[in-house]
Amino acid sequence: MDPKLRISFYTAVKLLWSVLETLYEIAYYLLKNMESLKWEALLFYLFYLFGKRSGMKMFKRFLTAHFPYLADENEDWRRWATNQIELLGGRKWQPTKLYGRTKQLKRLDRKSSTTLSNLSQGAEAPERLFNMNKILIATDDGHGMETAGKRTPQFADGTYMKENEFNRAVIDKLNVHLKRNNFDVIHVSAGDTDVPLKTRTDLANNKIPNGFGRKADAIISVHANAAGSTWNSKVKGIEIYYRAGSKEGKKLAQDVQEYLVKGTPLINRGLKTDNLHITRESKMPAILIEGGFMDNPDEAILLMSDAYREECAEEITRGLCQYFGRTYIEVTPPAPPLPVGVNAVSIVIGSNDPYSGLLINGSSWVPAKEVLTVLGVKTWMFQKKSIYIGESSVETKIINNTSYIKSVDLVSLGILKGVFFDPNVVNTKRVLLFPKEAV
Question: Residues in domain MurNAc-LAA (predicted)?
Fold first, then answer.
């Protein structure tokens, strides 16, 4: 029976039963009080029946809405459970007496089911749902070091670059970027030999156990392109292949290509499809990147450049982060080197996080802005390359765009009570500053 008709039938039966029950109670009341019946009493009784049938329900709703401790716990639990089931992708609870027995849902594949972990993923592509493990990326450097014919034409000095030199370097750097961005990584073509294509995809698909117990969520294969075996300045640019008909493969290719084209000097040759083993046999979004032409003399120089290889790895990672709805974690730039005779040391003030200070000729120097701020000194300024505290100028050193002052000068000015070198002046690991009011 149609659910709507079933609901209508049930409602009609329930209404009819209520009417019959009410008529029975009225008839019983009339028979019992026939001799002394008063119309006022009958009207009051009818009002009582109305209140009993609907008024009390309304009154109960009012009480539970304004006084939650009067609510029916079973009803609250049913509402909460229904809400959770719907959030997890299940069917809304339906009373059996209204809808009849529902068919049991087919068991969902764990990978395709919605969980609380992926409900929080961005809304850019809600159809891409991932399990609660880390996202696993399979990486592949195309060919091998000794694969015949996969190299640049010969340069004027008689040298050449093997394609796998570029492919491997990019993948090695890519793996580092991916791990920094909290991806799991399986390198399916490790080693110098030309790993069979089936082995590569079987590892990605976990047909050959890959150590993660599951197939990868995406596979990235890196190659260098070639139009022939001789130099050709007309062929140029980056292109990416994906499996024809793969909506997710195309989306992944678009995201990666967007960053590669923005971050490198090469032109965009677009997205393409072809009958390639890597994209065809991988059971997940798969792309094959052609990062430039080995037979274009200008691009060959780029392909040999460590800076270009690093840029490719970074941009591929940015594209993967965009595809999976993650924020890319930038590389922390290394601190500039300190001048000769200057050593870094931690400056500790109470329970605050340590500050980066310096040791110069046995004296401790502290970063002026951070330390004066935490000590509550308001009457200071930076003028003519010196720090002034009140009317007094203190010795200042500017190193790597940061102004440093001697900690002992803060003692002389009465801002600090004392300075302690831990464990001693010779082998100092940290410098403890004691504010005047704290000692």
Answer: 201-321
